[in-house]
Amino acid sequence: PGPAVGLPASGDLDGDGHATASEALQVARAVISGTSGWSDAQIAAADMDGDGYLTMADVVRSLRKAAGLT
């Protein structure tokens, strides 16, 4: 298996220790399409506000984290 996924609400979908713009884009695609095909751990990492849903709020928080604004 690949690297471990980051902690819940971390934005780190690939487990490399960093939340990136690429990962934020993946969250945006999942929100827009309504599906991700991700593991529960990846969904938890992408759920930046911890509400149990992937929404545009998670996209914004992911982008802010990737840009170092949080």
Q: In terms of topology, how is this protein built?
A:
Blueprint (H helix, E strand, L loop, with lengths): L20 H13 L6 H7 L9 H11 L4
Task: List the main descriptive attributes of the protein structure presented here.
mainly alpha; 44% helix; 70 residues; 0% strand; globular
Structure description:
The protein is built from three helices and no strands. With 70 residues, it is mainly α. The longest helix is centred in the middle third of the chain and has 13 residues, at 21-33. The chain is globular. The termini are far apart. 33% of the residues are buried. The mean pLDDT is 92.
Helix content: 40-55%
> What characteristic shape results from the CA principal axes?
globular
Instruction: Report the structural category.
Output: mainly alpha
What's the total count of β strands?
Answer: 0
The SSE order reads: HHH
The whole-number mean of residue pLDDT values reads 92
Q: How many whole angstroms does the radius of gyration measure?
A: 11 Å
Sheet bearing the most strands, described?
A: none
Q: Which ranges are low-confidence, i.e. pLDDT below 50, for 5 or more consecutive residues?
A: none
Please indicate the percent range of residues in DSSP E strands (runs of 2 or more): under 5%
State the distance separating the first and last CA atoms: 30 Å
Number of helices: 3
